Amino acid sequence: QLHRIKGEVYSIGGFQLSDEQLYSTHRIEIDQPVMFYVFSDGFGDQFGGPAGKKFMTNNFRDLLLSISDLPINEQQAKLENTFDEWKGGLEQVDDVLVIGFKIYPKNLE
After folding, report:
1. What's the sign of the alpha-carbon dihedral 72, 76, 78, 79?
2. Quick one: angle between helices 57-67 and 72-87, nearest 10?
């Protein structure tokens, strides 16, 4: 199952309109190990495939869901291979950031 926590519409660093910008706080109760992913829009925005179209965010989320039970090194390999195969000979259009980590509840430590 995939749950999305949307980011803020304003950046954390750089020029800010207000010196006292407030950001949302999210609390997540977990009772089993949970895989988290933080990512930029670069993977989904990459052109490629047979028609030279964007990979798209929904396809990227489906990919994350399909690999989330794999060991982390296999997840990394699958992400890299999928990206490279999709991109093919086309130029990379944006930076790509994907950070994955697993959190275990205290009672499972």
Report:
1. positive
2. 150
Q: Which amino acid is at 74?
A: E
The token duo for 84 is: 């490279």
Residues 73-98 pLDDT 10s: 999 999 999 999 999 999 999 999 99
What are 27-64's pLDDT values in tens digits?
A: 988 899 999 999 999 999 999 999 999 999 999 999 99
Please say whether the beta carbons of 105 and 33 come within 8 A: yes
- Residue that is written with structure tokens 């994907």 in the block: 98
**Signed CA dihedral, 44, 45, 48, 49: sign only:** positive
99 phi/psi in degrees, rounded to 5: -120, 125
Do 49 and 12 touch, CB atoms closer than 8 A?
A: no
CB 87 within 8 A of CB 43: no
Q: Residue 9 CB: number of other CB atoms within 10 A?
A: 5
What ranges in 7-105 are assigned the alpha helix state H?
A: 57-67, 72-87
